[in-house]
Amino acid sequence: MPVLVFDLDDTLYPELSYVHSGFRAVAEFLSPLLHQPAETLAAGMIAEEAEQGRGQVFDNVLRRHGRWTKTLVAACLRHYRQHRPQLALYPDAERCLARFAAWPLYLVTDGHKEVQARKVAALAVARHVRHAYLTNRYGRHRAKPAPHVFELICRREGVPPGQVIYVGDNPRKDFVGIKPLGFKTVRILRGNYAHLEADAAHEADRRIYTLDELTAEFVAELVG
Ligand SMILES: [Mg+2]
Questions:
Q1: What pLDDT shows up at residue 167?
Q2: Contact 189, 208 (CB under 8 A)
Q3: Residue 74's pLDDT is what?
Q4: Do residues 213 and 131 share a domain?
Q5: Among 42, 63, 82, which residue terminates a domain?
Q6: Which NCBIfam families would you find in this protein's record (predicted)?
Q7: Which of 60, 114, 125, 133 is the most exposed place for a label (fewest CB within 10 A)?
Q8: Per-residue confidence band for 100, with pLDDT thresholds at 50, 70 and 90
Q9: How far is the CA of 37 from the centre of ligand 1 (A)?
Q10: What whole-number distance in Å separates Cα of residue 209 and Cα of residue 32?
Q11: Which residues of 33-64 are buried (b: 16+ CB within 10 A; e: fewer)?
Q12: For residue 98, what pLDDT is reported?
């Protein structure tokens, strides 16, 4: 039976919802310090992120209130990273995981390992997959595009790479490392990379708009 492996951020849930959840946690922390309602602070951070990205959000909210210090910026970052997020799977992700419940399913995700572990817990995906591989646990050099954890999956399932399908959203790193080894790849067109044009080496074997397109027939055709 083919093995289905999913990326996490922007594949199974919208990553921006994590960012917003983190802003709300930081707003709760800053509220008594800045004498502002948390909701107002959170709304300001969310609006700024939409316009200018997330890079300077904590610096700017502190600056606006005349309270910028390196220590407070670091404290904001700590609250952001350590908060328990409130997240929900994309509805099509929920349906997909249910549809393939009897199949060997896995998760492979990069990023800060404690942060990713809290996302996995918040989304309750552990009950859907045989294992959630947080690549950071194996060292930074094992992050995508490195194929290391994908090879662990092959060994664990006793299947060749041609029987393993990876579904991800980021053509910069999700497919380029594993395609030469024979893994099958599916790109879901959503999130920050939806409009990125990738060259042949970085592009997936198939492109889909929703996980509803991932059916047993689709998989059978892909793995041949
Ligand atoms: Mg992703």
A1: 98
A2: yes
A3: 98
A4: yes
A5: 82
A6: HAD-SF-IA-v1 (TIGR01549)
A7: 114
A8: very high
A9: 33
A10: 43
A11: ebebebeebbebbbebbeeeeeeebbeebbee
A12: 97
CA of 36 to the centre of ligand 1 (A): 34
Tracing tokens 């994309």 back to the chain, one arrives at 90
- How many domains in the chain? 2
Residues forming a β-bridge with 131: 106
Write down which residue in 47, 82, 117 finishes a domain: 82
Same domain? 135 vs 47: no
Element (H, E) at 74: helix 70-82
C-alpha 108 to ligand 1 mean position (Å): 10
Domain holding 98, by residue range, is 3-14+87-223
Are 95 and 56 members of one domain? no
Q: DSSP letter at 186?
A: E
Same domain, 205 and 195: yes
The pLDDT of 120-136, averaged and rounded, is: 97
Both 69 and 157 in a single domain?
A: no
Share of the chain above pLDDT 70, in %: 100
* 138: number of Cβ within 10 Å: 15
**CA 67 to ligand 1 center in whole angstroms:** 34
Domain shared by 192 and 94, yes or no: yes
Using the structure block, give the residue that is written with the tokens 């990205």: 53
Do 160 and 212 sit in the same domain of this protein? Answer: yes
